[in-house]
Amino acid sequence: MTATVNAPVSLQRPELVTEIPGPKSRAIHARREQAVPRGVGCALPVYIEYADGAWLTDVDGNRLLDLGSGIGVTTLGHTHPAVVAAAKAQLDRVSHTLFTVTPYENYVRLAERLAEHTPGDHAKKSFFVNSGAEAVENAVKISRAFTGRRVVAALDHAFHGRTNLTMAMNHRAAPYGTGFGPFAPDVQRVPNSSPLRDGLTGAEAAARTIEYLEQRIGVADLAAVIAEPIQGEGGFIVPAEGYLPALQEWATANGVVFIADEIQAGLGRTGTWFSSELFGLVPDVVLTAKGIADGLPLAGITGRADIMDAALPGGLGGTFSGNPVSIAAAHAVLDLLETGEPFAEAARVERALVDGLRELAHTYPEIGDIRGHGAMVAFELLQPGTTTPLAGLAGEIAAHAAEQGVLLLTAGSYGNVIRFLPSLAVTTEQIEYAVEVIGDALARTRAQ
Ligand SMILES: *Cc1c(COP(=O)(O)O)cnc(C)c1O
Predict the structure, then answer these.
(1) 80, 187, 197, 399 - which has most CB atoms within 10 Å?
(2) How high is the pLDDT of residue 6?
(3) Which residues of the chain have a pLDDT value below 50?
């Protein structure tokens, strides 16, 4: 039997043979700066040649511990053998026909499986596109067609993508929107629930959001509300209990489509099929992308059948949308999730991370708020005893960790969050090592 998570390398610590980045990476990076625009950012300029499980091997032969998984994509581990085998087998059979010209069965089967695993037992339909942003765009299109209304409401601290419509939905202007306007009209942002900063219960935060929706937009024009159940780029903001179901209830009562953007938090990452389940939320439309095919590009829009049928035939699709190779990989991912083992691994990762970070916070009270679910955990760096962000420190910790061969991602609207999106193949010992490296980084900044 194939292991459900890909952990082929017994290494527990990074293995560094050069400084980070090494000379070969630096040489490629110099070429990149001539050939690739700076707008395509770079968190860590090490150029990767191989990846397996939780490990990245760069062109200089360094093995780095990857706690970002390409931003929550390779949840079951890099190059999982079952995923690779499924994609290779499909590539040998057929790589493209275009589902809207001559279809293929694995697309239909994936729609059936997502209907089964997304929250709620109502009739559902799904279709597939290439990226998260495209999934968001399509959910908005369908919501408008279904309701006959114009406006879409997104939450403060949201991130939904880099296309024109989704740029208008993001919280942060820089870097996502700066210089790129004019933006799509009929997008409004409303307050979210952020227990650390607003001190509100879920019911209070929902009442505040709903007041904005009713007063600023008005139900007559509101097509959809979109929410990440746990906000990703915003810094893994976990809403207060009851907030999301109260919003869904209000949306249902007012004929507004409630869209859950599960692109970062879905598909096993938080220890459940979908993070909506953690909050008792049954959304009208669920968006998937990132982790759905363990590294191949694919995104899904799954929703109530009547909503999904609102678009005219030919109104949805795209040349590469629902590519059969990506879909074959997604079936392998769902096969592995159906064993239930990845959910247990996510719970283990959460315990190891949260316990390790709590312990560290005794020594370093700058670690101000540890939160998240499963393999989606973050902490804020705060002026001790306050909610004042220490933005520079997050970058210093990530830089120190990189020197030690540990790839950490930052996040948050204030740039002061360290977020962990490891693959479920990461071992407890590897997590403990990463926490130790963070402690070293904090000790070093104190010594300065
Ligand atoms: C990454 C992300 C997106 C955008 O997905 P792309 O595939 O980068 O277009 C949208 N929503 C959330 C919550 C994300 O994390």
Answers:
(1) 80
(2) 73
(3) 1
Indicate the pairing of strand 285-288 with strand 187-190.
Answer: unpaired
| C-alpha of residue 429 to centroid of ligand 1, in Å | 30
User: If you take atom 10 of ligand 1, which residue's CA is the nearest one?
Assistant: 160
Cα 268 to Cα 206: distance, rounded to the nearest angstrom: 26
Structural fold of domain 97-322: Aspartate Aminotransferase; domain 2 (3.40.640)
One-character DSSP codes across 415-432 = S-EEEE---TT--HHHHH
Please indicate, yes or no, whether the overall pTM of this predicted structure exceeds 0.85.
Answer: yes
How far is Cα 215 from Cα 192, in angstroms, rounded to an integer? 16
Atom in ligand 1 nearest the alpha carbon of residue 233: 15
In whole angstroms, give the CA distance from residue 154 to residue 176.
15
Contact (CB, 8 A) for 133 and 170: no
- The answer to whether the CB of 413 is under 6 A from ligand 1 is no
What pLDDT score was predicted for residue 1?
Answer: 41
Question: What is the CATH number that goes with domain 23-80+341-447?
Answer: 3.90.1150.10
Tokens of 10: 């017994």
- Put the strands of the sheet holding 406-407 in their side by side order: 48-52, 55-58, 63-66, 406-407
> Residue 259: helix, strand or coil by DSSP?
strand
| Whether the domain at 23-80+341-447 and the domain at 97-322 fall into the same CATH topology | no
Give which of 237, 233, 193, 228 is closest to 372, Cα–Cα: 237
Number of H helices, E strands in the chain: 14, 15
Buried b (16+ CB within 10 A) or exposed e, 208-243: bbbeebeeebeeeebbbbbbbbbbbbbbbbbbbebb
155 lines ligand 1 (CB under 6 A): no
What's the token pair of residue 423?
Answer: 């693959």
Say yes or no: CB of residue 65 within 6 Å of ligand 1.
no
C-alpha 266 – ligand 1 centre gap (Å): 11
Domain ranges within the chain, ordered by starting residue: 23-80+341-447, 97-322
Q: Which residue in the block uniquely carries the two structure tokens 């993070």? A: 275
Which residue shows structure tokens 């963070």?
Answer: 438
Q: What is the pLDDT of residue 5?
A: 75
